[in-house]
Amino acid sequence: MTFEIKKIGIIGAGQMGNGIAHVCAAADYEVVLSDVSEDRVRSGLATITGNMARMVARGKLSDEARKTALDRIKPSVGLARLADCDLVIESAVEKEDIKRKILVDLCAVLGPRAMIATNTSSISITRLAAVTDRPERFMGIHFMNPVPLMELVELVRGIATGEETFEASKAFVRRLGKTYSVAEDFPAFIVNRILLPMINEAVYTLYEGVGTVEAIDNAMRLGANHPMGPLQLADFIGLDTCLSIMQVLHDGLADSKYRPCPLLVKYVEAGWLGRKTQRGFYDYRGEKPVPTR
Ligand SMILES: NC(=O)c1ccc[n+]([C@@H]2O[C@H](COP(=O)([O-])OP(=O)(O)OC[C@H]3O[C@@H](n4cnc5c(N)ncnc54)[C@H](O)[C@@H]3O)[C@@H](O)[C@H]2O)c1
């Protein structure tokens, strides 16, 4: 028998957290969506509302199903409303110190049988599990962006993750209608171990003047048949998240090939984080994206 999950808490209502809330509600789970402020939670709910409305307009969701799914998502500022969840998925910013604090605070309020998962893109599951009171009930459940559209979820066990937790995670991913790949707990797992060095190399290509933003993106779209260019993709992921992942790879594998490009660092220092701040390698404030270099 696998552990039954009925109610899911999500910490972080940003681009990933609201996407996870969307797919969980659409799969008939009760959902609590939490963030640090009312504004952040409201903005996450507004994104879900807009995305579901678009799905209705395209005939991919009935209006009835949209209403029911939205009703299943309850907002929460802070962690108190997560106490009776069966599974809590942490999807706050990609900063280990912030995630550690969230997990410690969460364990203080969460029922003892509940599972905890993290949507981290790169940080050690084993290390995050070790700050909780339940490393055997802790998993990496790594969704892809945008969550409602992307089929893959990476499942990552920490060294102490128990079989029941692993099985329940597989059943959860299946119920969402998604497919999982199992990755071992090494920095950035599978997808980002391969994807982020390519994106970082694209930023070096820009930094060294080998090509412009448009030349690089067109080259990889039309020459390597990628659906979007690497710099456009970086803006989509969030440049702060890209930088954090490169830092985890660089620190965790101690290989200079993972050195974050200084230009990526500069964009993050400027607060140009990509689509979520309206500016990154492209400026999104006008009618169509304009390259910033
Ligand atoms: N962006 C991607 O493509 C992508 C893909 C897969 C996984 N991830 C991972 O998902 C996580 C979230 O990334 P995102 O792209 O949604 O970032 P985001 O910047 O869009 O959202 C992060 C959210 O976390 C909230 N937050 C910050 N501190 C918090 C705290 N102490 N408690 C609760 N909430 C807090 C912020 O207010 C914000 O709403 C990261 O771990 C990231 O690595 C990102």
Detailed description of the structure:
With 293 residues, the protein is of the alpha/beta class. The chain folds into 2 domains: 7-183, NAD(P)-binding Rossmann-like Domain (Rossmann fold, 3-Layer(aba) Sandwich), CATH 3.40.50.720; 193-291, N-(1-d-carboxylethyl)-l-norvaline Dehydrogenase, domain 2 (Orthogonal Bundle). The protein is built from 11 helices and 10 strands. The protein has an 8-stranded mixed beta sheet with strand order 3-2-1-4-5-6-7-8, with helices on both faces. Strands 9-10 form a two-stranded antiparallel ribbon. Helix 7 crosses helix 9 (230-237), helix 7 packs across helix 10 and helix 10 crosses helix 11. The longest helix is centred in the first third of the chain and has 20 residues, at 38-57. The protein is globular. The chain starts with 6 loop residues before the first strand and ends with a strand. The model has no long low-confidence stretch (mean pLDDT 97). Keywords: NAD, Oxidoreductase. Belongs to the 3-hydroxyacyl-CoA dehydrogenase family. Its EC number is 1.1.1.157. NAD(+) binds at residues 12-17, 35, 94, 99, 121, 145, 276. Pfam families: 3HCDH, 3HCDH_N.
